[in-house]
Amino acid sequence: MQKQTILFNLDDTLAYCNRYFAQVIDKFAEQMTVWFDSVSIDEFKRKQLEIDIKAIGKHGLASARFPESFVGTYNFFCDLTGREKNKEETDYLRQLGNQVFEIPVEPIPYMNETLTALKKEGHELYLHTGGDEANQQRKIAQLELTAYFENRIFISGHKDTTALSDILKTIDADPSMTWMVGNSLRTDIVPALEKNINAIYIPAESEWAYNVVDIELKPVSAYYTVGALYEVPDVIHRHIEGDEAI
Ligand SMILES: [Mg+2]
User: Which GO terms of the molecular function aspect are on file (predicted)?
Assistant: First the structure.
């Protein structure tokens, strides 16, 4: 079989991520209803999401952005309702936001089996994840991912087409035999299609609004959507064999 170069995303592709953010955001919104009884849970969540996504343009995917979005939301509603800002409360919110970076991550079902199967077949596996070094390394260590990726790990603060392009230059692989596998249309799939490599999209159980975009370009290379991570080896094999029924 022709050896392929396969780049995997980490968060919500190999291990759960969005669910931990959702848990902490729920706690945040509940706390906020105690302080601002005229505002609904949904309004807190909408504002937090807006502030969080806005900050990506400036700060990229750095971890501190998330707890700061809690403080920003708190400040917004203090200004709106005339409630006095309180340092103890903002300290508490930062601490709450940071809890998301302490929750042990769980692998997506069949993560180890999927990566083992691809590795055994001789494909070269890379990890391309967005976020900051410390938090992503924590998860990589917990999941023991260096068993599959060794030093072929890229952590990008801004995970976009430029970041992917730089990685592709570094690894110098044939685009027709290179794949990006991920859950994010915005940060995994669009960059892959723009760089004319193959892409496999695996929708997450619940998706962060930031990751959802319309695909407007027509793929030159292969582009598949699968329901689960464990389907990836079969799709790649069938593609190599020229199976048109995938
Ligand atoms: Mg992801």
Answer: phosphoglycolate phosphatase activity
Tens-of-pLDDT digits for all 246 residues of the chain? 799 999 999 999 999 999 999 999 999 999 999 999 999 999 999 999 999 999 988 888 888 999 999 999 999 999 999 999 999 999 999 999 999 999 999 999 999 999 999 999 999 999 999 999 999 999 999 999 999 999 999 999 999 999 999 999 999 999 999 999 999 999 999 999 999 999 999 999 888 888 888 888 888 899 999 999 999 999 999 999 998 888
**What pTM does this model have?**
0.92
Ion ligand 1 contact residues with beta carbon within 5 A: 9, 11-13, 183-184
Cα–Cα distance for residue pair 184/217, rounded to 1 Å:
16
Angstrom distance (rounded) from CA 5 to CA 200: 13
How many C-beta atoms lie closer than 10 Å to residue 213's C-beta?
A: 13
Q: How far is the CA of 178 from the centre of ligand 1 (A)?
A: 18
d(Cα 22, Cα 168) in Å, to the nearest integer?
33
- Measured CA distances, 100 to 27, 44, 63, 118, 189 (Å): 11, 18, 10, 31, 26
User: b vs e for 81-113, b when ≥16 Cβ sit within 10 Å of the residue's Cβ?
Assistant: eeeeeeeebbeebeebbeebbeeebebbeebee
